[in-house]
Description:
By secondary structure, chain A is α+β, with helices and mostly antiparallel strands. Chain A has one domain: Arc Repressor Mutant, subunit A, CATH 1.10.10.10. Chain A contains five helices and three strands, in the order ααβααββα. The two termini of chain A are 19 Å apart. Chain A binds chain B through residues 1-2, 6-7, 9-11, 13-23, 25-26, 29-30, 42-44, 81, 84-85, 88-89, 91-92, 94, and chain B through 1-2, 6-7, 9-11, 13-23, 25-26, 29-30, 42-44, 81, 84-85, 88-89, 91-92, 94. Chain A binds a DNA duplex through residues 18, 20, 35-37, 40, 45-56, 67, 69-72.
Amino acid sequence: MINxxxxxxxxxxxxxxHPVRVYVLQTLSLQSCCYSGDLTEILPIAKSxxxxxxxxxxxxGLIQGETEAPRVKYCINKQNWEEAKELLxxxxxx
Amino acid sequence: MINxxxxxxxxxxxxxxHPVRVYVLQTLSLQSCCYSGDLTEILPIAKSxxxxxxxxxxxxGLIQGETEAPRVKYCINKQNWEEAKELLxxxxxx
DNA sequence: ATAACTGTTCGTAATATTGCGAACAAATAT
DNA sequence: ATATTTGTTCGCAATATTACGAACAGTTAT
Lengths: 94, 94
């Protein structure tokens, strides 16, 4: 009934469905990577809350985190990022 | 901190964050308008549930409903649809 | 007038989301 | 060895989302 592309699109859109996550993705896509601490300094939310948002973006596949002890470097997951882009592009150009 | 474009983008993305709503928008953008009954027949959800999803899309500004008694004709809200498209396009092309 | 049709609203329930602070884990610095 | 730094996880609370059926409202058919 509802196909896989539609489900995937909804999944990615859902991940984009919060201002903080939009901000994080925008930051990452501009500078490719950043430490979560950089975001904590700027964003007016508790670090635990940011951590949750980062987890959601990771679960959705849009970012990936790499431990560079004691910090964690987050980057865009390029492959899935491109997939999301393609899905949305096609969606809006029907 | 987080600007209006980011908030708007998140709002539209949130509306797109469910498979049923993606399906509805895709259907509407393909045939421009449709009656909610057409969707009820196809989608495996209760009509009250569909009504809620339609309300959310309407609240997000992506669709608009017009009563053609006893039915309701739903159409894409072109202006906001274009805005969402532009916001997402810019977002992914940073 | 009554029945049928279309869709919304209401009440309810289960689950998910958002947010915080405290506690924790792991590595580094003192 | 102890303290500091960085970030996650836990526990909690408030609110939002998703879903359903029943009841309702408005229009059209009988």
